[in-house]
Protein backbone atom coordinates (compact mmCIF):
# COMPACT_ATOMS: atom_id res chain seq x y z
CA UNK A 1 0.00 0.00 0.00
CA UNK A 2 1.24 3.49 -0.83
CA UNK A 3 2.60 5.33 2.19
CA UNK A 4 1.26 8.86 2.29
CA UNK A 5 1.46 11.77 4.64
CA UNK A 6 -1.38 14.22 4.95
CA UNK A 7 -0.10 17.60 6.13
CA UNK A 8 -2.29 20.42 7.27
CA UNK A 9 -2.02 23.59 9.30
CA UNK A 10 -3.73 26.88 10.07
CA UNK A 11 -7.12 25.54 11.12
CA UNK A 12 -7.37 28.26 13.78
CA UNK A 13 -10.28 26.66 15.54
CA UNK A 14 -12.11 25.58 12.39
CA UNK A 15 -13.48 22.17 13.36
CA UNK A 16 -15.72 22.03 10.29
CA UNK A 17 -12.74 22.19 7.91
CA UNK A 18 -10.89 19.60 9.98
CA UNK A 19 -13.87 17.25 9.74
CA UNK A 20 -14.03 17.76 5.95
CA UNK A 21 -10.32 16.97 5.63
CA UNK A 22 -10.79 13.84 7.75
CA UNK A 23 -13.64 12.89 5.42
CA UNK A 24 -11.43 13.46 2.37
CA UNK A 25 -8.69 11.33 3.87
CA UNK A 26 -11.08 8.49 4.53
CA UNK A 27 -11.70 8.44 0.78
CA UNK A 28 -8.00 8.51 -0.08
CA UNK A 29 -6.04 5.38 -0.93
CA UNK A 30 -2.91 4.58 0.93
CA UNK A 31 -1.51 4.12 4.38
CA UNK A 32 -1.96 7.68 5.59
CA UNK A 33 -0.28 9.40 8.52
CA UNK A 34 -1.79 12.74 9.49
CA UNK A 35 0.46 15.59 10.58
CA UNK A 36 -0.97 18.86 11.88
CA UNK A 37 1.76 21.47 11.66
CA UNK A 38 0.47 24.03 14.11
CA UNK A 39 -1.82 27.04 14.21
CA UNK A 40 -4.78 24.98 15.37
CA UNK A 41 -5.73 27.96 17.51
CA UNK A 42 -6.36 31.57 16.54
CA UNK A 43 -8.15 34.68 17.76
CA UNK A 44 -11.15 34.68 15.44
CA UNK A 45 -13.28 31.88 16.83
CA UNK A 46 -13.52 29.65 19.87
CA UNK A 47 -11.05 26.81 19.43
CA UNK A 48 -12.18 24.46 22.19
CA UNK A 49 -14.21 22.11 19.99
CA UNK A 50 -11.33 21.58 17.57
CA UNK A 51 -8.87 21.12 20.44
CA UNK A 52 -11.19 18.57 22.03
CA UNK A 53 -11.34 16.64 18.74
CA UNK A 54 -7.55 16.70 18.34
CA UNK A 55 -6.97 15.57 21.92
CA UNK A 56 -9.69 12.91 21.74
CA UNK A 57 -10.12 11.81 18.11
CA UNK A 58 -13.45 10.31 17.10
CA UNK A 59 -13.62 6.67 16.18
CA UNK A 60 -12.58 6.43 12.54
CA UNK A 61 -10.53 9.63 12.61
CA UNK A 62 -6.96 9.45 11.45
CA UNK A 63 -4.93 10.09 14.59
CA UNK A 64 -3.41 13.57 14.30
CA UNK A 65 0.28 14.05 15.08
CA UNK A 66 0.48 17.68 16.14
CA UNK A 67 3.22 20.24 16.65
CA UNK A 68 2.82 23.81 17.80
CA UNK A 69 2.70 26.80 15.47
CA UNK A 70 3.08 30.56 15.68
CA UNK A 71 -0.35 31.14 17.25
CA UNK A 72 0.24 28.45 19.87
CA UNK A 73 3.61 30.06 20.61
CA UNK A 74 1.89 33.40 21.22
CA UNK A 75 -0.75 31.77 23.40
CA UNK A 76 1.81 29.87 25.48
CA UNK A 77 4.01 32.94 25.88
CA UNK A 78 1.10 35.08 27.06
CA UNK A 79 0.01 32.31 29.41
CA UNK A 80 3.39 32.21 31.14
CA UNK A 81 4.80 29.08 29.52
CA UNK A 82 7.80 30.90 28.04
CA UNK A 83 9.34 32.42 31.13
CA UNK A 84 9.28 36.21 31.13
CA UNK A 85 8.47 36.42 27.42
CA UNK A 86 4.91 37.38 26.46
CA UNK A 87 3.04 37.42 23.14
CA UNK A 88 5.20 40.32 21.99
CA UNK A 89 5.11 39.51 18.27
CA UNK A 90 1.32 39.32 18.24
CA UNK A 91 0.96 42.43 20.37
CA UNK A 92 3.34 44.33 18.10
CA UNK A 93 1.56 43.29 14.90
CA UNK A 94 -2.08 43.26 15.91
CA UNK A 95 -2.32 44.97 19.28
CA UNK A 96 -3.73 44.08 22.67
CA UNK A 97 -7.18 43.27 21.31
CA UNK A 98 -5.82 40.36 19.30
CA UNK A 99 -3.93 39.05 22.32
CA UNK A 100 -7.09 39.20 24.42
CA UNK A 101 -9.13 37.56 21.66
CA UNK A 102 -6.62 34.71 21.45
CA UNK A 103 -6.64 34.19 25.20
CA UNK A 104 -10.45 34.13 25.19
CA UNK A 105 -10.58 31.67 22.29
CA UNK A 106 -8.92 28.84 24.19
CA UNK A 107 -10.04 27.23 27.44
CA UNK A 108 -7.03 27.16 29.81
CA UNK A 109 -7.82 23.45 30.25
CA UNK A 110 -6.07 22.83 26.90
CA UNK A 111 -2.89 24.77 27.69
CA UNK A 112 -1.25 21.71 29.21
CA UNK A 113 -1.78 19.73 26.02
CA UNK A 114 -0.66 22.59 23.80
CA UNK A 115 2.47 23.08 25.90
CA UNK A 116 3.34 19.41 25.46
CA UNK A 117 3.48 19.73 21.66
CA UNK A 118 6.87 19.50 20.00
CA UNK A 119 8.58 22.11 17.83
CA UNK A 120 8.72 19.68 14.92
CA UNK A 121 9.11 16.12 13.75
CA UNK A 122 11.89 14.44 11.83
CA UNK A 123 10.48 11.57 9.78
CA UNK A 124 12.81 9.60 7.51
CA UNK A 125 14.97 12.35 5.96
CA UNK A 126 12.27 15.01 6.28
CA UNK A 127 11.75 17.81 8.76
CA UNK A 128 8.14 18.74 9.54
CA UNK A 129 7.95 22.16 11.13
CA UNK A 130 5.56 25.09 11.33
CA UNK A 131 8.01 27.85 10.41
CA UNK A 132 11.56 26.68 10.01
CA UNK A 133 14.38 25.12 11.97
CA UNK A 134 15.40 28.65 12.96
CA UNK A 135 12.13 29.88 14.41
CA UNK A 136 8.46 28.97 14.58
CA UNK A 137 7.69 32.36 13.02
CA UNK A 138 10.13 32.02 10.12
CA UNK A 139 8.30 32.38 6.79
CA UNK A 140 9.71 30.35 3.90
CA UNK A 141 8.39 30.88 0.37
CA UNK A 142 9.63 30.40 -3.18
CA UNK A 143 11.01 33.95 -2.94
CA UNK A 144 13.22 33.11 0.06
CA UNK A 145 16.92 33.19 -0.96
CA UNK A 146 18.19 29.68 -1.76
CA UNK A 147 21.05 30.02 0.73
CA UNK A 148 18.54 30.69 3.48
CA UNK A 149 16.48 27.68 2.47
CA UNK A 150 19.60 25.50 2.45
CA UNK A 151 20.57 26.81 5.87
CA UNK A 152 17.17 25.95 7.35
CA UNK A 153 17.39 22.43 5.89
CA UNK A 154 21.00 21.96 7.00
CA UNK A 155 20.22 22.94 10.59
CA UNK A 156 17.95 19.90 10.83
CA UNK A 157 20.28 17.61 8.89
CA UNK A 158 17.43 16.53 6.59
CA UNK A 159 16.88 16.56 2.85
CA UNK A 160 13.33 17.91 2.81
CA UNK A 161 11.66 20.52 4.95
CA UNK A 162 7.88 20.76 5.18
CA UNK A 163 6.76 24.18 6.34
CA UNK A 164 3.40 25.81 6.98
CA UNK A 165 3.96 29.34 8.21
CA UNK A 166 3.70 31.01 4.78
CA UNK A 167 0.26 29.36 4.25
CA UNK A 168 1.38 28.77 0.64
CA UNK A 169 1.57 25.49 -1.24
CA UNK A 170 4.78 24.89 -3.15
CA UNK A 171 7.38 22.21 -3.76
CA UNK A 172 10.75 23.78 -4.44
CA UNK A 173 13.86 21.72 -5.16
CA UNK A 174 17.43 22.90 -4.78
CA UNK A 175 19.80 20.93 -7.00
CA UNK A 176 23.33 21.06 -8.41
CA UNK A 177 24.54 23.23 -5.56
CA UNK A 178 28.26 23.82 -5.76
CA UNK A 179 30.70 26.25 -4.17
CA UNK A 180 34.50 26.44 -4.00
CA UNK A 181 36.07 26.95 -0.60
CA UNK A 182 39.65 28.18 -0.21
CA UNK A 183 40.95 28.11 3.34
CA UNK A 184 44.22 29.66 4.48
CA UNK A 185 45.39 29.04 8.04
CA UNK A 186 48.63 28.48 9.94
CA UNK A 187 48.99 25.06 8.30
CA UNK A 188 48.88 26.45 4.75
CA UNK A 189 46.23 26.60 2.05
CA UNK A 190 43.64 24.07 0.93
CA UNK A 191 40.91 24.19 -1.68
CA UNK A 192 37.76 22.14 -1.77
CA UNK A 193 34.71 21.98 -3.99
CA UNK A 194 31.55 21.50 -1.97
CA UNK A 195 28.39 20.01 -3.43
CA UNK A 196 25.05 19.07 -1.96
CA UNK A 197 22.53 16.35 -2.77
CA UNK A 198 19.08 17.41 -3.89
CA UNK A 199 17.19 19.27 -1.18
CA UNK A 200 13.60 20.45 -1.09
CA UNK A 201 11.30 22.80 0.78
CA UNK A 202 7.59 22.09 0.66
CA UNK A 203 4.94 24.59 1.69
CA UNK A 204 1.86 22.65 2.78
CA UNK A 205 -0.79 25.39 2.76
CA UNK A 206 -3.25 26.34 5.48
CA UNK A 207 -6.89 25.92 6.43
CA UNK A 208 -8.84 24.20 3.68
CA UNK A 209 -5.67 23.88 1.57
CA UNK A 210 -3.62 20.86 2.58
CA UNK A 211 -1.00 18.55 1.13
CA UNK A 212 -0.68 14.87 0.43
CA UNK A 213 2.86 13.59 0.15
CA UNK A 214 3.71 10.23 -1.40
CA UNK A 215 6.68 9.10 0.61
CA UNK A 216 7.92 6.51 -1.88
CA UNK A 217 7.79 8.65 -5.01
CA UNK A 218 8.48 12.09 -3.49
CA UNK A 219 5.33 13.48 -5.10
CA UNK A 220 3.29 16.29 -3.59
CA UNK A 221 -0.41 16.79 -4.23
CA UNK A 222 -1.82 20.17 -3.25
CA UNK A 223 -5.45 19.78 -2.35
CA UNK A 224 -8.37 21.84 -1.19
CA UNK A 225 -11.16 20.38 0.90
CA UNK A 226 -13.44 18.42 -1.39
CA UNK A 227 -10.82 17.82 -4.08
CA UNK A 228 -10.48 14.13 -3.26
CA UNK A 229 -14.07 13.44 -4.10
CA UNK A 230 -13.75 15.35 -7.38
CA UNK A 231 -10.46 13.76 -8.36
CA UNK A 232 -11.02 10.05 -7.98
CA UNK A 233 -9.81 9.69 -11.54
CA UNK A 234 -6.45 11.27 -10.67
CA UNK A 235 -5.55 8.53 -8.26
CA UNK A 236 -5.99 10.15 -4.88
CA UNK A 237 -9.04 8.12 -4.04
CA UNK B 1 45.24 51.10 4.34
CA UNK B 2 46.09 48.28 6.71
CA UNK B 3 44.10 47.56 9.80
CA UNK B 4 44.53 44.95 12.49
CA UNK B 5 41.82 42.72 13.92
CA UNK B 6 42.28 41.08 17.30
CA UNK B 7 39.97 38.77 19.25
CA UNK B 8 39.62 36.61 22.35
CA UNK B 9 42.10 38.38 24.61
CA UNK B 10 40.92 36.44 27.67
CA UNK B 11 42.56 38.56 30.35
CA UNK B 12 46.06 37.62 29.21
CA UNK B 13 47.88 40.94 29.59
CA UNK B 14 51.27 39.71 28.46
CA UNK B 15 49.82 38.42 25.18
CA UNK B 16 47.79 41.58 24.57
CA UNK B 17 50.81 43.80 25.15
CA UNK B 18 52.91 41.69 22.78
CA UNK B 19 50.29 41.81 20.01
CA UNK B 20 49.70 45.55 20.36
CA UNK B 21 53.47 46.03 20.23
CA UNK B 22 53.65 43.99 17.02
CA UNK B 23 50.85 46.10 15.51
CA UNK B 24 52.51 49.35 16.59
CA UNK B 25 55.85 48.35 15.09
CA UNK B 26 54.15 48.05 11.70
CA UNK B 27 52.69 51.51 11.95
CA UNK B 28 49.09 50.27 11.88
CA UNK B 29 46.79 52.75 13.57
CA UNK B 30 43.36 51.15 13.10
CA UNK B 31 42.63 48.20 15.36
CA UNK B 32 39.32 46.41 15.76
CA UNK B 33 38.71 44.02 18.65
CA UNK B 34 36.13 41.23 18.41
CA UNK B 35 35.53 40.78 22.11
CA UNK B 36 36.13 38.25 24.88
CA UNK B 37 38.37 40.62 26.76
CA UNK B 38 37.91 38.57 29.92
CA UNK B 39 37.60 34.96 31.06
CA UNK B 40 40.15 32.25 31.89
CA UNK B 41 43.04 34.68 32.31
CA UNK B 42 44.26 36.44 35.47
CA UNK B 43 44.27 40.13 34.41
CA UNK B 44 40.72 41.07 33.32
CA UNK B 45 40.87 44.64 34.67
CA UNK B 46 44.29 45.34 33.19
CA UNK B 47 43.23 44.08 29.75
CA UNK B 48 39.93 45.96 29.72
CA UNK B 49 41.64 49.15 30.82
CA UNK B 50 44.34 48.79 28.17
CA UNK B 51 41.70 48.45 25.45
CA UNK B 52 39.80 51.41 26.87
CA UNK B 53 42.94 53.55 27.15
CA UNK B 54 43.91 52.79 23.56
CA UNK B 55 40.34 53.55 22.41
CA UNK B 56 40.24 50.35 20.38
CA UNK B 57 36.85 49.89 18.76
CA UNK B 58 35.48 46.69 20.24
CA UNK B 59 32.40 44.51 19.92
CA UNK B 60 31.11 42.35 22.71
CA UNK B 61 32.12 38.70 23.03
CA UNK B 62 30.26 35.84 24.68
CA UNK B 63 32.34 36.01 27.88
CA UNK B 64 31.85 39.78 28.06
CA UNK B 65 28.10 39.29 27.72
CA UNK B 66 27.99 36.44 30.21
CA UNK B 67 29.93 38.29 32.88
CA UNK B 68 27.62 41.30 32.78
CA UNK B 69 24.43 39.28 32.40
CA UNK B 70 25.35 36.77 35.09
CA UNK B 71 25.02 33.90 32.63
CA UNK B 72 27.47 31.14 31.93
CA UNK B 73 28.99 30.70 28.55
CA UNK B 74 27.07 28.11 26.58
CA UNK B 75 28.09 24.71 27.83
CA UNK B 76 28.37 23.54 24.24
CA UNK B 77 31.73 25.24 24.21
CA UNK B 78 33.09 23.04 26.96
CA UNK B 79 34.55 19.74 25.83
CA UNK B 80 33.81 17.92 29.10
CA UNK B 81 32.10 18.28 32.46
CA UNK B 82 35.48 18.84 34.06
CA UNK B 83 36.22 21.65 31.62
CA UNK B 84 32.78 23.05 32.32
CA UNK B 85 33.40 23.12 36.09
CA UNK B 86 36.70 24.88 35.52
CA UNK B 87 34.97 27.32 33.18
CA UNK B 88 32.42 28.07 35.88
CA UNK B 89 35.25 28.71 38.34
CA UNK B 90 36.86 31.12 35.89
CA UNK B 91 33.51 32.82 35.42
CA UNK B 92 32.99 33.24 39.16
CA UNK B 93 36.54 34.48 39.70
CA UNK B 94 36.21 37.03 36.89
CA UNK B 95 32.85 38.24 38.17
CA UNK B 96 34.31 38.79 41.63
CA UNK B 97 37.46 40.54 40.42
CA UNK B 98 36.23 42.73 37.56
CA UNK B 99 35.46 46.28 38.68
CA UNK B 100 31.98 47.73 38.27
CA UNK B 101 33.37 50.35 35.92
CA UNK B 102 34.88 47.70 33.67
CA UNK B 103 31.65 45.68 33.76
CA UNK B 104 29.81 48.79 32.63
CA UNK B 105 32.29 49.15 29.79
CA UNK B 106 31.68 45.56 28.67
CA UNK B 107 27.92 46.15 28.91
CA UNK B 108 28.24 49.18 26.64
CA UNK B 109 29.89 47.27 23.78
CA UNK B 110 27.93 46.68 20.55
CA UNK B 111 27.39 43.14 19.31
CA UNK B 112 28.60 44.06 15.83
CA UNK B 113 30.49 46.78 14.02
CA UNK B 114 29.84 47.55 10.36
CA UNK B 115 32.41 49.35 8.24
CA UNK B 116 31.47 49.61 4.58
CA UNK B 117 30.98 46.09 3.25
CA UNK B 118 32.79 44.54 6.23
CA UNK B 119 31.06 43.26 9.34
CA UNK B 120 32.87 42.59 12.61
CA UNK B 121 31.32 40.17 15.14
CA UNK B 122 32.52 37.89 17.89
CA UNK B 123 30.91 34.58 16.90
CA UNK B 124 28.59 34.98 13.94
CA UNK B 125 26.00 37.51 12.80
CA UNK B 126 23.41 35.22 14.44
CA UNK B 127 24.95 34.82 17.86
CA UNK B 128 28.00 35.56 19.97
CA UNK B 129 28.03 31.86 20.81
CA UNK B 130 27.98 30.40 17.29
CA UNK B 131 31.27 28.95 16.06
CA UNK B 132 32.17 29.57 12.44
CA UNK B 133 34.82 26.89 12.14
CA UNK B 134 37.00 26.70 9.01
CA UNK B 135 35.45 23.39 7.94
CA UNK B 136 31.80 24.20 8.62
CA UNK B 137 29.32 23.55 5.83
CA UNK B 138 30.34 25.87 3.02
CA UNK B 139 26.78 26.83 2.10
CA UNK B 140 25.91 27.64 5.71
CA UNK B 141 29.08 29.71 5.99
CA UNK B 142 28.18 31.57 2.81
CA UNK B 143 24.68 32.18 4.17
CA UNK B 144 26.06 33.74 7.36
CA UNK B 145 28.03 36.33 5.37
CA UNK B 146 25.47 36.97 2.65
CA UNK B 147 22.51 37.41 5.00
CA UNK B 148 24.49 39.90 7.07
CA UNK B 149 24.83 42.14 4.02
CA UNK B 150 28.63 42.00 4.08
CA UNK B 151 31.31 40.99 1.60
CA UNK B 152 33.78 40.13 4.34
CA UNK B 153 32.85 38.87 7.78
CA UNK B 154 35.46 39.23 10.52
CA UNK B 155 34.89 36.92 13.46
CA UNK B 156 36.64 35.23 16.36
CA UNK B 157 35.33 32.86 19.05
CA UNK B 158 36.86 29.68 17.59
CA UNK B 159 40.41 30.72 18.59
CA UNK B 160 41.50 29.30 15.23
CA UNK B 161 42.78 31.95 12.82
CA UNK B 162 41.86 31.41 9.19
CA UNK B 163 40.77 33.08 5.98
CA UNK B 164 38.04 31.34 3.98
CA UNK B 165 37.02 32.48 0.53
CA UNK B 166 33.79 31.13 -0.93
CA UNK B 167 33.28 31.56 -4.65
CA UNK B 168 32.37 30.03 -8.02
CA UNK B 169 29.11 28.95 -6.48
CA UNK B 170 25.84 28.17 -8.18
CA UNK B 171 22.57 26.43 -7.45
CA UNK B 172 19.57 25.34 -9.49
CA UNK B 173 16.15 26.26 -8.11
CA UNK B 174 13.36 24.11 -9.44
CA UNK B 175 9.79 24.99 -8.59
CA UNK B 176 8.45 21.50 -9.06
CA UNK B 177 4.92 22.11 -7.96
CA UNK B 178 3.10 25.22 -6.80
CA UNK B 179 -0.57 25.88 -6.52
CA UNK B 180 -0.31 29.29 -8.18
CA UNK B 181 2.65 28.99 -10.58
CA UNK B 182 3.89 27.12 -13.58
CA UNK B 183 6.78 24.72 -13.21
CA UNK B 184 9.96 26.77 -13.36
CA UNK B 185 13.71 26.18 -13.20
CA UNK B 186 16.33 28.84 -12.57
CA UNK B 187 20.10 28.53 -12.26
CA UNK B 188 21.45 31.09 -9.82
CA UNK B 189 25.00 32.26 -9.26
CA UNK B 190 25.97 32.41 -5.62
CA UNK B 191 27.86 35.46 -4.30
CA UNK B 192 31.59 35.55 -3.59
CA UNK B 193 32.18 36.13 0.08
CA UNK B 194 34.96 35.85 2.65
CA UNK B 195 35.23 34.94 6.33
CA UNK B 196 38.27 36.11 8.27
CA UNK B 197 38.77 34.63 11.72
CA UNK B 198 41.25 36.55 13.84
CA UNK B 199 42.11 33.61 16.10
CA UNK B 200 42.94 34.39 19.71
CA UNK B 201 45.38 36.70 21.41
CA UNK B 202 45.10 35.27 24.91
CA UNK B 203 43.97 31.65 24.55
CA UNK B 204 45.34 30.10 21.34
CA UNK B 205 43.81 26.84 20.07
CA UNK B 206 45.78 26.40 16.88
CA UNK B 207 48.16 23.83 18.32
CA UNK B 208 50.96 26.26 19.12
CA UNK B 209 51.51 28.66 21.99
CA UNK B 210 51.76 31.98 20.14
CA UNK B 211 49.11 34.66 20.15
CA UNK B 212 47.44 35.24 16.78
CA UNK B 213 45.68 38.09 15.04
CA UNK B 214 45.15 39.27 11.45
CA UNK B 215 46.08 42.27 9.34
CA UNK B 216 43.76 43.27 6.53
CA UNK B 217 45.15 45.34 3.68
CA UNK B 218 42.07 46.85 2.08
CA UNK B 219 44.01 48.16 -0.92
CA UNK B 220 45.50 44.80 -1.87
CA UNK B 221 42.47 43.09 -0.31
CA UNK B 222 44.88 40.69 1.35
CA UNK B 223 44.76 39.16 4.81
CA UNK B 224 47.86 38.17 6.76
CA UNK B 225 47.63 35.85 9.77
CA UNK B 226 50.20 36.91 12.36
CA UNK B 227 51.72 34.79 15.13
CA UNK B 228 53.29 36.61 18.06
CA UNK B 229 55.39 35.12 20.83
CA UNK B 230 54.81 36.52 24.30
CA UNK B 231 55.94 35.99 27.88
CA UNK B 232 53.86 32.92 28.66
CA UNK B 233 55.56 32.32 32.01
CA UNK B 234 54.42 35.73 33.23
CA UNK B 235 50.77 34.86 32.50
CA UNK B 236 51.08 31.34 33.91
CA UNK B 237 52.54 32.61 37.17
CA UNK B 238 49.70 35.13 37.46
CA UNK B 239 47.15 32.34 36.87
CA UNK B 240 48.60 30.27 39.72
CA UNK B 241 48.87 33.31 41.96
CA UNK B 242 45.24 34.24 41.33
CA UNK B 243 44.10 30.78 42.36
CA UNK B 244 42.66 29.91 38.95
CA UNK B 245 42.80 26.25 37.84
CA UNK B 246 46.38 25.24 37.12
CA UNK B 247 45.31 23.59 33.89
CA UNK B 248 44.71 27.06 32.40
CA UNK B 249 48.43 27.73 32.79
CA UNK B 250 49.39 24.25 31.62
CA UNK B 251 47.42 24.51 28.38
CA UNK B 252 48.75 27.99 27.61
CA UNK B 253 52.31 26.74 27.99
CA UNK B 254 51.65 23.59 25.93
CA UNK B 255 49.29 24.92 23.28
CA UNK B 256 46.50 22.45 24.06
CA UNK B 257 43.13 24.08 24.56
CA UNK B 258 41.19 20.84 24.82
CA UNK B 259 43.33 19.29 27.54
CA UNK B 260 40.32 17.64 29.12
CA UNK B 261 38.63 16.53 25.93
CA UNK B 262 38.94 12.78 26.43
CA UNK B 263 37.87 12.72 30.05
CA UNK B 264 34.15 12.70 29.46
CA UNK B 265 33.05 11.84 25.96
CA UNK B 266 29.40 11.66 27.03
CA UNK B 267 29.18 15.30 28.06
CA UNK B 268 26.17 17.09 26.63
CA UNK B 269 25.11 20.69 26.68
CA UNK B 270 22.87 21.76 29.56
CA UNK B 271 21.02 24.35 27.50
Descriptive notes:
The complex is a heterodimer of chains A (237) and B (271). Chain A has 237 residues and is of the alpha/beta class. Chain A has helices spanning 15-26, 48-55, 70-78, 88-105, 111-115, 146-156, 227-230, and strands spanning 3-8, 31-37, 64-67, 120-123, 126-129, 160-163, 169-185, 188-195, 199-204, 209-214, 219-224. Chain A has one domain: Purple Acid Phosphatase, chain A, domain 2. In chain A, helix 1 links the parallel strand 1 and strand 2. The longest helix of chain A has 18 residues, at 88-105. Chain B has a single domain, classed as Metallo-dependent phosphatases (Purple Acid Phosphatase, chain A, domain 2, 4-Layer Sandwich). In chain B, helix 3 (62-69) crosses helix 5 and helix 7 (232-242) runs antiparallel to helix 8. Chain B is globular and about 70 Å long. Chain A binds chain B through residues 142, 145-148, 150-151, 154, 168-186, 192, 194, 196, 200, 205, 209, 220, 222, and chain B through 134-135, 137-143, 146-147, 160-181, 187-188, 190, 206-208, 212, 223, 225, 227.
Strand and helix layout:
The complex is a heterodimer of chains A (237) and B (271).
Chain A (H helix, E strand, L loop, with lengths): L2 E6 L6 H12 L4 E7 L10 H8 L8 E4 L2 H9 L9 H18 L5 H5 L4 E4 L2 E4 L16 H11 L3 E4 L5 E17 L2 E8 L3 E6 L4 E6 L4 E6 L2 H4 L7
Parallel strand pairs in A: 1-2, 2-3, 5-6, 6-9
Antiparallel strand pairs in A: 1-10, 4-5, 7-8, 7-9, 10-11
Helix pairs in contact in A: 3-4
Chain B lengths: L1 E5 L6 H13 L4 E4 L10 H10 L3 E2 L3 H8 L11 H17 L2 H8 L4 E4 L2 E4 L16 H10 L4 E4 L5 E18 L5 E6 L3 E6 L12 E7 L4 E7 L3 H11 L3 H9 L17
Parallel strand pairs in B: 1-2, 2-3, 5-6, 6-9
Antiparallel strand pairs in B: 1-10, 4-5, 7-8, 7-9, 10-11
Helix pairs in contact in B: 3-5, 7-8
Amino acid sequence: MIERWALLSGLMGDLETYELIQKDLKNTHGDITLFVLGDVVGPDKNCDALLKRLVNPHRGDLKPHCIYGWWEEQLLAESGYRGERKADALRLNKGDDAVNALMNAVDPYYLGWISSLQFGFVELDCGLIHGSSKDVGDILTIQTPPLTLLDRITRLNVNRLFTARSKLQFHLELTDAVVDSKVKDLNGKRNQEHTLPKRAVIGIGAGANYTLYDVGSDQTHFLTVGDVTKSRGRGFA
Amino acid sequence: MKHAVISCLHANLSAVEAVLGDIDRQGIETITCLGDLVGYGPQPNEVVELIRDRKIETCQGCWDEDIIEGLDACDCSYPSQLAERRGHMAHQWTTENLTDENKEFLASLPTSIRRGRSLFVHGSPNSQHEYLLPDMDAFAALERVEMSGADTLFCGHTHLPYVRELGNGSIRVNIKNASDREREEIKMTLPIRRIVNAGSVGEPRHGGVNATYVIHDDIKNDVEIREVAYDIDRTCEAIIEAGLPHVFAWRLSNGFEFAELAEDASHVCER
